[in-house]
Write a structure and sequence with these properties.
Blueprint (H helix, E strand, L loop, with lengths): L1 H24 L4 H33 L1 H6 E12 L4 E11 L5 E2 L1 H6 L9 H11 L4 H7 L8 H9 L18 E12 L20 E10 L2 E3 L7 E3 L3 E5 L5 H16 L7 E6 L6 H4 L5 E5 L1 H12 L6 H14 L2 H12 L5 H16 L1 H9 L9 H13 L8 H15 L4 H7 L17 H15 L9 H17 L2
Helix pairs in contact: 1-2, 5-6, 5-17, 6-7, 10-11, 10-13, 11-12, 11-14, 12-13, 18-19
């Protein structure tokens, strides 16, 4: 770091003075002033990173403990992209004298795989942008002064493994009612398993959709502000992904584990499951006897409108009669009203629409009764809006083509993002435990070695001793700190 600061004193300060001088000549050009300052400061930061890493590598080369077990093979140059910019530095390849193992010991100490070229902070920036915009934009925003390719962004996303979605609270929450809303987004695929394997249907439409499922749990609805008309969910928590076939039960198990970890379910009167009656949602009803299925009001109204669309001026009266049959009657009462309405149908299409709509309501009859009965605790369902915000806005609202794996990973990432997850924590959770190097006994840094280092530093600093006099002590502490990591190899 000393060399970097010395270089900055000789050249960096002069560059800053030129930037300030240029601003004084033209004070209206504030942008050039800010950019100029930024570039000089970033350059200093990258030089400090480079020098520090190479100092660490040199300490490995000089270490007596290292020499007992590892021999030097060669020195290579590694390029790392950080959130600040790209840094190229020298690192040494070592060979273990007994096992014959080859390793870049600096990579092990840094916790960076030898093939990795992005630091954790850069990956966090990449994911923060990718979850909101596009692979292209994420690559551009990975670093302040550099970028990575769309393919790199895609590879990072596809390799993500998501940890448990929540940390259990110290004390479980006590609430009267809980709500689960569920729906799905239809996302277009470029291919299923490999390019060109999409089948063309009879109507010349490609069968290229995959369901991204969304489930979210919340405690109720409240106003955003005392006088606001806008409402928000209380403590919403999201789950999303592509859960096909038997994996559907895995999704609902994740939801129920979250409920068990977060809430005292013995104190909960009821858990209302708001949904549109989709087949995959039925698995949610089986999680607990506390769960009551409620038909989504949007879909209930949609099919009531389809049932009565041909009735013209009498349509509203017909819908009221149908609602009354659902709320206070039986399926037989509902069928009688439907039969009478069918008598007014003039075309086969109208009859078919009535039949399909009636079948949908009959298959969700008890859930429709709960919705219209407005029993205590029942709330409206916002699943359509949440699918739009949480999933569609990133994955299907614009023409896009995904892979099945990409849909699944992005769905999980969107849920993680909406849950307030920290991208840096997510990146750090991916880190595999790197192999520990062979030969690990402690080495004590001797007083003689410290004094030798002090004298060498003082000689190297020369005229800069006065301005950065604390640096000798700092450099010695740094050496001691890093030696500790060498001992742990």
């Amino acid at each position: 770091m000393i060399k970097s600061i010395q270089h900055f004193e000789e050249f960096g300060i002069k560059n800053l003075e030129k930037v300030v001088e240029g601003f004084m000549k033209d004070p209206k050009d504030m942008t050039s002033f800010v950019y100029g300052i930024r570039d000089v400061v970033i350059h200093l930061g990258l030089e400090i990173i480079k020098e520090t890493l190479e100092d660490c590598n040199q300490m490995l080369r000089d270490s007596a403990k290292r020499k007992q077990s590892w021999s030097i093979v060669k020195t290579d140059t590694k390029k790392l992209t950080t959130s600040l910019g790209s840094v190229s530095f020298e690192k040494t390849l070592f060979k273990h004298k007994t096992s014959g193992e080859y390793a870049y010991l600096l990579d092990r100490i840094l916790g960076i795989p030898s093939h990795e070229h992005l630091t954790e902070d850069a990956c966090a920036r990449l994911l923060t942008e990718a979850v909101q915009t596009s692979y292209q934009r994420a690559g551009e925003e990975t670093s302040l002064t550099d970028e990575v390719s769309k393919q790199t962004v895609k590879n990072k996303l596809h390799k993500l493994a998501f940890p448990s979605q929540t940390k259990p609270p110290e004390k479980k929450k006590e609430v009267e009612y809980l709500y689960i809303d569920a729906d799905e987004d239809h996302v277009s695929l470029q291919f299923k398993e490999k390019k060109g394997d999409l089948e063309m249907g009879a109507s010349h439409w490609k069968n290229n959709c995959v369901l991204s499922k969304l489930v979210y749990v919340y405690e109720g609805i409240e106003k955003e502000a005392p006088k606001s008309r806008r409402r928000r969910l209380i403590n919403a928590h999201y789950f999303s992904g592509v859960y096909d076939g038997k994996e559907n039960q895995k999704l609902w198990q994740e939801v129920y584990e979250y409920l068990e970890q977060t809430y005292d379910l013995e104190k909960v009167k009821k858990i209302y499951l708001n949904a549109d009656g989709g087949g995959w949602i039925q698995g949610g009803k089986e999680l607990s006897a506390q769960i009551t299925y409620v038909l989504d009001e949007f879909h209930l109204k949609k099919y009531l409108l389809k049932l009565t669309g041909h009735m013209m001026d009498s349509a509203e009266d017909a819908r009221k009669e149908l609602c009354s049959a659902i709320k206070d009657g039986t399926k037989a009462d509902f069928k009688r009203v439907v039969k009478r309405i069918t008598g007014y149908a003039r075309t086969e299409n109208e009859q078919r629409r009535i039949k399909e709509s009636a079948a949908y309501i009959l298959s969700n009859f008890s859930a429709a009764q709960v919705r219209l009965g407005r029993e205590e605790g029942v709330r409206g369902c916002s699943a359509e809006g949440h699918v739009s915000h949480v999933l569609s806005s990133r994955m299907s609202s614009r023409p896009m083509g995904w892979s099945r794996l990409g849909v699944d990973k992005m769905s999980h990432l969107r849920a993680y993002y909406w849950n307030g997850g920290d991208m840096l924590e997510l990146v750090r959770s991916q880190k595999e435990k790197l192999q520990v190097a062979v030969g690990a006994e402690n080495e004590v840094l001797s007083c003689e070695e410290i004094q030798k280092s002090e004298r060498a530093r003082r000689s190297a600093l020369g005229k800069y001793v006065e301005s950065i006099s604390h640096s000798i002590r700092l450099q010695t502490r740094q050496k001691i700190y890093f030696q500790h990591h060498i001992w742990d190899l």
